[in-house]
Amino acid sequence: MQGAPGFLLRVVKDYRVAFLLVGAVNTIVGFAWFAIFQLTVGSAFGYMAALGCAHVASVLCAFVLYRRFVFRVRGHVWRDLARFEMVYLVALGINAILLPILVELFGLEPIVAQALIVFVTTMVSFVGHRNFSFRRPRTPQSDVPEMSSE
Question: Is 92 in contact with 37 (CB distance < 8 Å)?
């Protein structure tokens, strides 16, 4: 990766901890987006429309948070965003399957169902971002070492 470590990484000194801290904030923000859209868009168009709107808002917020506070990479913004979105599309697919099951079959309110699903999608996102989204090949010129799962 190119560039200096983000603020959070300089403070905690461990990619995994920094990633998980930003992930926790991102999870709360993403859930808040869903609740906001469910209470607005969802009341008119349904919970799946709320999920779609929340997905877009959440991905853009998360991308900025990870890129600014953890990875501090330079260049490749569009490529990084595309890879980042690919990871979140997997999480969205899981969410799109589980949300109707919990709402329609189990009778849960959409916001309650989403609160349960967020634990599953958080783990999927963590693994995907750690191994794919911001990964750069290690080079002798790299200022920041590649993140590992050690």
Answer: no
